[in-house]
Amino acid sequence: MRFDVAIMGGGIVGLSLAYTLLTRNPYCRVLLIEKEPEVGQHQTGHNSGVIHSGIYYRPGSLKAKNCRHGYELMVSFCRKHAIPHAICGKIIVATEEHELVGLEELHRRGMHNGLTRIKKLSPPELREIEPHVASIAGLLVPQTGIVDFRVVAQTLQKLAVTHGAEFRMGERVESIRQDSSGIHISTSSQTYLADRAVNCAGLFADRLALQTKHDLDLRIIPFRGEYYTLTPERQHLVKSLIYPVPDPAFPFLGVHFTRMISGKVEAGPNAVLALKREGYKKTDFDWRDLWDTVSWPGFRKLARRYWGMGCGEIYRSYCKEAFVRSLQRLVPEITASDLLPGGSGVRAQACDSQGRLLDDFSFVNDGRLLHVCNAPSPAATSALAIGEVLCDQLNKS
Predict the structure, then answer these.
(1) Model confidence over 149-167: pLDDT tens digits?
(2) CB neighbours of 347 closer than 8 A, spacing ≥ 6?
């Protein structure tokens, strides 16, 4: 069974690539292989549903370029296909003096990345937008939106099938081999042959990449993010989205409040090392996943450098009062009784051998194979733009 392009992984990035390939070339024979029975079951379906504006990302980076372009494509896509969404805006607030430098840097990045309507806010101005917020200064980012990315993923699948894509659901990719005849992909059910292939396996992207790219200098480290939701009677404390100034040492945005498209308000996430790559519960555990993490020299260097912060995240995971204190920095009226257990997600975060968490997307060419090795947030927002980038790279290979 031969295809022009085989895509491994049915998250929003893989789906966007399939859709883009077929809108550009309706005669392209596209195969998408996904181990789950439905698309978008992991990072796509477990995030907070924010359409990011692009304010956080280093100017000139792949994240900055693809987030800004992806934002426009995503909003247009949702409008065209009647997907419920809202451009509600968000505020980023500084609660301590040392955060003012970071807030100013975010303003600079936002302006450089083309966000013309961001605005510096004083505490009284912030309280006009979010009456219950605590701050000494803030930024208004009106371009930020919310959507259910699972609905986006399902829509992309329907469109791709309509345009001729073939989907193989419930098949796990077990091996990849490339030779002069093409890319041989063996799954739990059969073997496929493709002229070119793209690895969009998310949490397992490094394992697939290592089958052909033996010198790959990164590994996926899974971080679980845990959420609470506000009780219905306390949802009025948050009007839209409230974010802190992020720690520049990490590619995480910190505990925040998000009003979702469903109307619920999420509070979180933290960032705890997951003991299983798809470990959404504290008790989830997998020996191989854990060994892959702790045996990677980069993780051990990272752990030595930031063990104190890691212990703090674990403590906050098990101690609700500690989680509440983090939230009270933004909204002091929040109490433990206002929070109900929410969901969780696992972020596929690449770490290199020097212990650096990659702060940008990473697309690795390997002959006629293309590996998406690091595509955490804002990959969902950027997905349609990433689909275009991957299409362009395939055309060059």
Answers:
(1) 999 999 999 999 999 999 9
(2) 43, 222, 223, 224, 225, 271, 376, 377
